[in-house]
Amino acid sequence: MTPAARTLLAVAAALGLLSVALGAFGAHGMRATFASASDGALRAGWWQTATTYATAHATATAVTALVCDRTGASLAAASGWAFAAGVVVFSGTLYAMALGAPRWLGAVTPLGGLALIAGWGLLGAAALRGQG
After folding, report:
1. pLDDT per residue as tens digits for the range 47-91
2. Rounded to an integer, what distance in angstroms lies between the CA atom of residue 16 and that of residue 9?
3. Into how many domains does the chain fold?
4. CA 26, CA 46: separation in Å to the nearest integer?
5. N or C: which end of the chain has fewer CB within 10 A?
6. pTM of the full predicted structure?
7. What contacts 50, CB < 8 A, 6 or more positions away?
8. Cα-based distances in Å from 20 to 17, 53, 97, 120, 126
9. 18 pLDDT band (50/70/90 cuts)?
10. Do residues 74 and 113 lie in contact, with contact meaning Cβ atoms separated by under 8 Å?
11. 62 contacts 12 by C-beta, under 8 angstroms
């Protein structure tokens, strides 16, 4: 495996590990906190959305690492890094708000969403160029 693909796959594994661990923590460790908060349903929803997107895009990042390794496609690698950045920003801000961080972080969340969208666009471009 190429060094770039190996690094991207390691990042994907870390994102996947964190998404499962944080998903479990939210479902079990934060249940009472969410239930007792006046906005608990909203906060639990943010946590669930963050976990869903993190898990899906950790998987997508792993796929891009494998495509990058198989083809050497720089667009596939860029796609993986966009997914990783998107997870950190999108899911990270949602997790933070669910834990009580200021709601203004919600204005940053869409930037992570744009990175996720860019990741899919780059992966599509790699496929259309025969790099996927």
Report:
1. 999 999 999 999 999 999 999 988 888 899 999 999 999 999 999
2. 10
3. 1
4. 10
5. N
6. 0.94
7. 22, 90, 91, 92, 94, 95, 98
8. 5, 11, 19, 22, 29
9. very high
10. no
11. yes
